[in-house]
Amino acid sequence: MGFSGTSNYVATRELQTAVNAAVALQRPLLIKGEPGTGKTLLAFEVAKALGKQLFTWHVKSTTTAQQGLYEYDAVSRLRDSQLGDDQVNHIENYIKKGKIWEAFDTEEQSVLLIDEIDKADIEFPNDLLQELDRMEFYCYETKQTIKAKYRPIIIITSNNEKELPDAFLRRCFFHFIRFPDKETMQQIVDVHYPNLEETLLINALKTFFGIREVKNLKKKPSTSELIDWLRLLLVGKVSAEDLEDLNKMNEIPPFLGALLKNESDYDLFKALREKGVK
Amino acid sequence: MLTNFFFHLRNNNLKVNLREHLTLLEALDKEVVAFSTEDFYFLSRAIYVKHEQNLDLYDRLFGQFFEGIESINVDEFLKIDDNWLINKLLDNLSDEEKEALKAVGGLEELLERLKKTIEEQKERHEGGSKWVGTGGVSPFGNSGNNPAGVRIGGKGGNKSAVKVWDKRDFKNYDDNLELNTRNTKMALRRLRLLTREGAENELNLDVTIDRTCQNAGFLDIKMQASKQNRVKVLLLLDVGGSMDDFIEECSMLFSSAKHQFKNLEFYYFHNCVYENLWKDNGRRYEDKISTWDVLNKYNKDYKVIFIGDASMSPWELSEPRGSVEHYNAEAGTVWLERFKDKFPNLVWLNPINDGYWQYTHTIQQIRTWSDNRMFPLTINGLEKAMKCLKNSKLKFL
Asked: Cα B192 from chain centroid?
C-alpha cells in the first residue's frame, strides 16, 4: 500500500517515492516549492488516499511550539475554584490539547500537517525536535509522558521565509516540488477539467507558459492560478479561437488578473504586449 | 559501495551525516522502493538533500558516482586514431557547441591538449581547472562546467569520448551563495530587551495572589502582556565605492536584522555621515533626509549600528568640504560626535577583516571615536557588538 496520487491530485514519481519512504520509515516529510504547487494540498490528499484522519496545524508568526502540544488554562481554573465547581479538582479539565497531542492520541495512524513552519519564530523548529523525533513529550501539569500510540505521518511545508536549523532538517525527509513541465501540467488540468476542449487547453497552456517566461515578474503564476484561470475561461465562455485571436493581435488575454496577482507585473505584461513583444 | 557513495558526497561538500546514511540503509532494508536506479535516486535524494540549493550538486555527484564507474582506460584512449575521433565527435555536436569549440581553438587543438594533459598527469584527479578528471572547469573530464569540454568516461565506454551532460534540472537553484542568514539571526538575537507591552494575555501570578489576599480570598485576577523583544535599532549603512566588495555580507546582515528587530530604522550614507542621509539608493539625490531630523527623531533608547569599512581619505573625516561627493559645511567628525552625544549605545561594524585595520588611518580614527566599539562583520564580532549594545558600560580594548 502506498501513495500514488489521487483522482484529483497528480503526484510525480519522485514525490510518490518521497512520501512512501517517509511513511515507511516514520519520519517527517518536509515539502518546499513555489507557492501554488500543491504543498499544503499534499497532506490532504495523502490522508484521503490512505484513508487516515488528518490534523492540520497552521503556523503563524505568533505560534509557539507549546501550542501544538497543549495549553494550560490557569485562569478558568482559578475562576472555577471560586465557584466551587467540581471539575476544579482535576487539572486535566484545564489542559487544552494541541494538534500534536491530538494526532498522537488517535487509535490508528493519522496524518499531521504542520503548515508553513517558516512563518514562526526562528527557534520554533528547535523546540519541536524531540517531539518529532521520539514522538513523545512531557506534560508538566499532569506529570505524564504523552507518547504517540501510532506514529503519525507528519508533513511539514515551508515557503523558505526563514532558514530551518540543521538539526531539524537532519530528522526530516525533504522534497522540493518542482514547477510541473507541460506534460504534467496537462495531466493536472485533465484531472480538474476532464471535459475541457483540447484546443482551448493547448492555447491556454501556451499563454500560461508564455507568461511564466516573461522575465522580471515578481510572482510567476503557478498551478493553482492556472486552474482558477481556466475556470474563469470556462465560465466566461472564452473559446480557443478567441484566445488565439487575442494572442495574434497582441492583446492581453482575458481575466489576466487571475494569473498575475501583482500590479506591477500586470503593467509590465501589458507594456510588453503593447510593444509587440511576445 | 554505498559507504563509498557516502564519502563521495561528503568529500564533495555535500554535508551528509551518518544518521542520514543509516536512514537510507534502513529504507533499502525495508524495500521502500523498487529496485531501479531512478527510484533509488529519488529516495536517496529525499534523505540526503535538505536544501534545494544542493539539488544540483547532488545530481552531479550522483551522476559521477554511478556512471563514472565504467570509465575509459587512459591508455586505450591514447591509441584511438585522431581523425576518426574528430569526425565522430563533430557528428555529435550542435551548431552552438561548435561555436563554443572554436573559442578554445577548434577540436584538433582541444584533442591535442587533452592528450598532452593525459600524458602529463599520472593520477586520478577531481575538481581544479587543468587536469582531466571529474568536476572542475577544465575542458576535459566528466560533469564539468566548461561549455567547450570533452567528456571522458560515463556511457561512452572505450568507443569514444562522447560529449554528454547529465540532465540537471535543478541547475537554477544552486546559486553558490552561502545563504547562512540563520547564524546571523542567532547572533542578532542576543540584542534583546524584553519588555511587556500591548495586549494582556498572560496571568500575573504574583499580583493575582497579592490582590486575592487583599480581597479576603475573593479571586481578583491580574493579567499582563507577555514579554517581547522590543529593542529599537537604528541602522546606518555605508554604500557605494569601496563598500561594493562587501555587498553580500551587508545584505545578509540587513535582511537578518529586518526579520529580527521589529523596530528597525535604517538610513544610508557614503563613507561618513554628513548633513544628509537617504533611505533609497535609487533616489539618493532627490529624497534626502536631513541628518538633524534623524538625530532629533529618534530618542536615546535607540541602539545605533553603523556598518561601513571606514576607509576614506583622512580629510573626509577631519575637514569641512572634505567629502568626495559634495560640499559639506561641517567635517565628518563633527557629525560623528553628534551621533555619539545623542546615542549612548552605538557600535561600528566593519566588514574588513580586523587584521587589516591597523593599516588604514581612518579606521583607527573612527575606532578611537567609537571608544573601540568597532567590530568585524563576523559572527563572533556580531555577538560582541550585540553584547556591547546591551551594556554601554562595557569597555573594549
From this structure: 24
CA geometry: angle B59, B65, B66, nearest 5 deg? 90
Q: Find out whether B84 and B121 touch, Cβ atoms under 8 Å.
A: no
DSSP H or E run through B115: helix B106-120
At residue B16, what are phi and psi to the nearest 5 degrees?
-105, 155
How many CB atoms are closer than 10 A to CB B396? Answer: 15
- Model confidence band, residue B176 (pLDDT cutoffs 50, 70, 90): very low
Does residue A231 carry a pLDDT above 80? yes
Cα Rg of chain B (Å, integer): 31
In this predicted model, what pLDDT tens digit does every residue of A108-130 receive, in sequence order?
A: 999 999 999 988 887 888 888 88
Residue B2: partners with Cβ closer than 8 Å, 6 or more residues away: B21, B24, B25
Partners of B22 on chain A (C-beta within 8 Å) are none
Contacts of residue B380, defined as CB under 8 A and 6 or more positions apart, other chains included, come to none
- State the DSSP code for A221: -
Residue B247: name the closest of B235, B237, B258 by CA: B237
B31-38, Cβ contacts within 8 angstroms, sequence gap of 24 or more: B32/A17, B32/A20, B32/A21, B32/A24, B32/A25, B33/A17, B33/A20, B33/A21, B37/B66, B38/A13
pLDDT digits (tens, 9 = 90+) for A125-161: 888 888 888 889 999 988 889 898 889 999 999 987 7
Instruction: Give the whole-angstrom CA distance, residue B86 versus residue B79.
Output: 14
ipTM: 0.75
CB pair distance less than 8 Å for A173 and B46: yes
| Per-residue model confidence (pLDDT) at position B379 | 78
Whether the predicted pLDDT of A275 surpasses 60: yes
pTM of the entire structure?
0.65
Cell numbers for A263: 500590479
Distant-in-sequence contacts of A235-244, Cβ < 8 A, 24+ apart: A238/A200, A239/A197, A239/A200, A240/A197, A240/A199, A240/A200, A240/A202, A240/A203, A243/A200, A243/A203, A243/A204, A243/A207, A244/A203
Amino acid code (one letter) for B80 = I
CB within 8 Å: B23 and A24: no
- CA distance linking residue B380 with residue B373, whole number of Å: 14
Instruction: Name, of B88-92, B180-184, B318-322, the range with top average pLDDT.
Output: B318-322
Residues in A closer than 8 angstroms to B170, CB to CB, are 176, 178
CA–CA distance, B244 with B289 (Å, rounded to integer): 23
Q: For chain A, percent helix, then strand, then coil, each to nearest 5?
A: 50, 15, 35
Q: Cβ B46–A74 below 8 Å, yes or no? A: no
The number of CA neighbours under 13 Å toward the Cβ of B64 is 25
DSSP structure class, residue A123: T
DSSP B272: B
CB contact under 8 A, A13 and B42: yes
Residues of A in contact with B226 (CB under 8 A): none
Which residue's entry shows cell 551548431?
Answer: B95
Instruction: Give the integer Cα–Cα distance in Å for B131 and B146.
Output: 13
